[in-house]
Amino acid sequence: MWLQTGTTDSPEQPPGGRRRAVAVAEVQGDIHIRLTTTVLEGLGYDTHIDLLSVPIGFKSMQNNDIDVFLGNWMPAQQKFADQYEGGYERLRANLKGAKFTLAVPEFVKEKAGVTSFADLDKHADQFDHKIYGIEPGAPANNLIQKMIDNDDFGLGDWTLVESSEQGMLSQVSRAERRDRFVVFLAWEPHPMNLQHDLAYLSGGDDYFGPNYGGATIYTLTRNGYSDECRNVGTLLDNLQFKLDMESQIMGSILNDGEEANTAARAYLKAHPEVFAGWLDGVTTVDGQPGLAAVKSNLGL
User: Fold this and answer.
1) Rounded distance between C-alpha atoms, residue 44 and residue 48, angstroms
2) Model pLDDT, residue 42
3) Are 241 and 35 in contact (CB under 8 A)?
4) What SUPFAM superfamilies does the record point to (predicted)?
5) Strand, helix or coil at 76?
6) I need a surface site. Which of 67, 91, 129, 162 has the fewest CB within 10 A?
7) pTM to 2 decimals?
């Protein structure tokens, strides 16, 4: 799904015009849009959030109904990027180094030299022949089960343990406390990377993709948007998020129960250096210095 954010009453827009910015409505995509809308509101823009599916969002951008997409995960969305090529402009990568593959606790890597998928079966008894996944039916679980069914890496006699994200991570915590081996599905950004010392495993390219199932997330706009709305365009071109930032905010949402808006606002208030670079060359709606306005809006 997608989140779309409307910015209204901007002098960059036609009279009575209404434009929108968009981001994927996964937890991390939600963080992108909450951070961005917090800054936009501090600059004097009004924002509104709706939900769209990924293909409808791409189509809407091609039709000039949507202005900005902050959550273009590549290569996962390559199909849609290719299908609607020419219907959008790519500004920049706003997040690099995302991962999605199997991992073990760092002590397992240090003690046994487990650094790749190929190392797992050498220590099958210590791992109890189990790989811990998430909810039944999840695509990632299906990849793990396919790997087992194919007996790749000698894992044919292993078992996929399906549970939930919370259940899987509870198992990881128990294993760490008892100094026992465990292998499980892991991804970044996510607060698990702050709560656990993880070692991501190499060699799973055929299942999760290269670079540890790596992804780069891009900011897209509809054609011509940055020329029409130069101030917002400058902000969007400056936006760059970091993995630890996202993991920390996600932890506030998932573990502490904070609302996404509250968590994003609190993070920005505690880390004004983060948005200082975003606001280089950016003003408020009425042309005043953007950095001072956003700081004031955050109570700084």
Assistant:
1) 13
2) 95
3) yes
4) Periplasmic binding protein-like II
5) coil
6) 129
7) 0.81
Spatial distance between the Cα atoms of 96 and 76, rounded to a whole number of angstroms: 14
Per-residue pLDDT tens for 6-22? 444 344 443 333 444 43
Torsion of CA 20, 26, 28, 30, to 10 degrees: 40
129 φ/ψ sector (left φ>0, alpha ψ -120 to 50, else beta) = left
First to last CA, the chain: 34
Contact 173, 121 (CB under 8 A): no
Specify the pLDDT at position 22: 38
Q: Which residue spans within 142-257 are E strands per DSSP?
A: 159-161, 184-188, 198-200, 215-221
Domain ranges of the chain: 2-88+222-297, 98-213
Q: Return the CATH number of the domain spanning residue range 2-88+222-297.
A: 3.40.190.10
Positions of the chain with pLDDT under 50: 1-28
Contacts of 12 (CB under 8 A, 6+ apart): 228, 229, 230, 231, 232
Q: Which residues contact 95 (CB under 8 A, 6 or more apart)?
A: 28, 32, 189, 216, 217, 240, 241, 242, 243, 246
Q: What does the pLDDT read at residue 51? A: 66
Q: What is the CATH number of domain 98-213?
A: 3.40.190.100
Q: 115: closest CA among 124, 127, 125, 106? A: 106
